[in-house]
Amino acid sequence: MTEFNYEKEWNSHNPWSFIPEKLNIGYASSDAVCDRGLGDRAAIYWENSKGEKRKLTYDDLRRQTNKFANVLTKLGFGRNDVLLLRVGNQVEFYICALAATKCGGIFIPSSTMFREKDILYRCNDAKVKAIVTTPQLVDVIDAVRDEAKTLEHVIVFDYLGETTTNPRHVKYDVEMAAASDEFKSVDTDNGDVAFVAYTSGTTGDPKGVVHYHRYGLAYEYLANYWYNYDTPDVITCPAEVGWLLPVSSSFLFALHRGMSIVLYHELGAFSPEKWFELFATYGVSVFIGTPTMYRMLLKVENAETRFDISKWREGVSAGEPLTPDTMEQVKTRFNISIRDGIGMSECMVYAHNCVGMPVYPGSCGRPGPGIVINLMETPDEDEESTGKLVPVKKGDPGVLCVKIDSHPGMMKEYLNKPEATAEVFRDGWFYTGDVLREDEQGYFWFIGRADDVIKASGYRISPFDVESALMSHPAVFEAAAVESPDPLRDKVVKAFIVLRPGIVESPELTKQLQDHVKNVAAPYKYPRKVQYVKELPKTQSGKVKRKLLRRMEFEGTPYQI
Description:
With 561 residues, the protein is an alpha/beta fold. It folds into two domains: 21-366, 3-Layer(aba) Sandwich (Rossmann fold), CATH 3.40.50.12780; 453-555, ANL, C-terminal domain (GMP Synthetase, Chain A, domain 3). The chain has 18 helices and 27 strands. The strands form five sheets. Strands 1, 2, 10, 11, 12, 13, 14, 15, 16, 17, 18, 20, 21 and 22 form a 14-stranded mixed β-sheet that branches. It has a five-stranded parallel β-sheet with strand order 4-3-5-6-7, sandwiched between helices. Helix 14 links the parallel strand 13 (314-317) and strand 14. Helix 4 crosses helix 5 and helix 12 packs across helix 14 (324-334). The longest helix has 17 residues, at 58-74. The two termini are 45 Å apart.
């Protein structure tokens, strides 16, 4: 895709034409790939931090998913039954999720960091019938098993030399050894439900985002423009598969396409040195990461000469807006032009930087061809919304809305939450809550969440603008900007700052940083308050919890994570 005419592509391509009416994503991501002659190709390269390694070909994946589909069928699992996965970055996640969809069932990704209340809530909300986990993670499930009203089976696979001895558990390895590797997948449509991903909401219970079998193919259509994938590509996303980004970017779409996935099960924090080793070992060509991951990769001295990263050709960022300084450093050191994009659990990606088009650092790009988006006015914070959406003038900030019937990756609903669904499905549009502006070239620029935008001294200030300016200073590693109460000005900008190693906080440094923001962003955007912290509070997906920081400010709560 060397020459790219955006308007021509947008007008001539319909994302729905890419998706067959009959589709079982489990079959399409394993058996169908083998039918295309790719059975011997590596589907998954797996390692863990203990040095253990595995490799599954597509034929291995076909046989293993069929085996587990037979195990599930034996346990009475069938159409619309729900399987929860609490395994971390394990090959079994891929096997079990695909097997569930082959049975006509539904899978739920979940984080290994969830506690009892998190697991119990998901079990009862989604009517979970079975759970797959490891001996190291099963205690949390056992603690709430009898309170989970529909839970019938806890399936445990051997890991790190441990095996379950609890007679109430189903032994995965024993059942798999006895199961047939032939299975006829249940006939499903592209509009049948395949999985539910729970959002990490800041208020109220998590919302279960219901997605269809077509989700992976919708992402595949957009990814063709975002990072111009090819079947021989080796793709990876370090995030835990309990989060939706790797489910979309390095699972369903990647397997359906016949790519090879590098999966690393890390027992601890993200290790940038190890990831450069993985780049070299497996020839990673496409890397999907969060801005924090890119910043950590940049901290590895001389990585570009110490490790063979010659196969790396595409860098994609998601989760949080990517600051221009990070993009420029990655380009300078690794010769990778990161293409940022923006989306959310409910509708995957809705805008991104396309291959073959100029990349403007800080912009999240343009809508994928065929995806209709518009910026709508937001009600004043003291007014009650009528639900009526009105487009803003070009150049003005507004809440980005996606035309529901234009995006095949759009969710069906929030599970068991019709009122919450109605709040975001308005007049045929999905109301994202993300505030953006569109420039004269049709590129979109993220300002913040509707409730993250800082209103200080009569100005509406993007936290991203303040954070980007701060992180362009050599002393700053990370920053978060929020509103803070002020007796004189009512509200002012406050910055929470993580300094780079070896940098010591001081009043002089604070003044330098404030002046830097005045010069780089605008005088009215500088943080009148600055607090230095060791780390920023983040969600499982790596997003900074600005709402938490803002709430702490207005409640007068001391900073804590």
